[in-house]
Specification:
about 210 residues, alpha/beta, disordered C terminus
Length: about 210
């Protein structure tokens, strides 16, 4: 008779940054992820705001401490303080406003310059193309997969806080990459529904053209 091994559940706390230009929907994404709600009333974040999301991970629990950082903060010196000890990041842009995508590389450069892991690598970062429910095309023939490889993103998702598109999936995907960076933790393969940018069958009508 084989001995039964009892595995003690553990809790993992990870600080996650949510950054990007003003008005791209960072606060709405967090509200949808944490509170399962959406509001069309826009209120600009001043400085930084906080929220907590709890996710199951195998037999453990992962607590994400989400830091909602104001869009104008990249131009100040406080981001170094805000970024400290973060394990991952979402960088968000508005799929209907090309200028917010143009700013993504600058946000990623700022993140990589001010925050690295103990071995000198950049933290796990996922790119979110938000407001895809509006169905407008972003021109320029952007190749998102190549862009992510060139700039060190773990992956990208088309998201809509309004329609609850890919919000939870993006969070799970980021957790997979953060947990994989911990000693002795193997990353689980993401099911098809949680692989970045592939789940077009879930996209709202017209959304699949947003980033072609």
């Amino acid at each position: 008779m084989s001995a039964q091994v009892n595995v003690t559940p553990r809790e993992h706390l990870h600080k996650v940054l949510v950054i990007g230009d003003l008005g791209v929907g960072k606060t709405s994404i967090i509200r949808r992820l944490v509170h399962h709600s959406y509001s069309s009333n826009y209120r600009a974040t001043i400085g930084v705001d906080f929220a907590l999301k709890v996710l199951p991970w195998k037999t453990d629990t992962v607590r994400l401490q989400l830091w909602d950082i104001a869009g104008q903060e990249r131009f100040g010196n406080m981001t170094r303080v805000y970024y400290r000890e973060a394990a991952g990041a979402f960088i968000v842009f508005d799929a209907t406003r090309p200028t917010t995508f143009e700013a993504v590389a600058k946000w990623k450069e700022d993140l990589d310059a001010k925050l690295t892991t103990a071995d000198g690598r950049g933290v796990a970062a996922v790119l979110l193309a938000n407001k895809c429910d509006q169905g407008r095309e972003m021109g320029g023939g952007v190749k998102m997969e190549q862009f992510c490889r060139d700039h060190g993103f773990a992956g990208w998702f088309q998201t809509s806080a309004k329609d609850n598109l890919n919000i939870n999936e993006a969070a799970i995907f980021l957790v997979q990459h953060m947990m994989a960076s911990q000693p002795g933790v193997r990353r689980m393969a993401a099911p098809d529904s949680i692989k970045p940018h592939l789940g077009r069958r879930q996209d709202p009508e017209g959304c699949s053209g947003c980033l072609k």
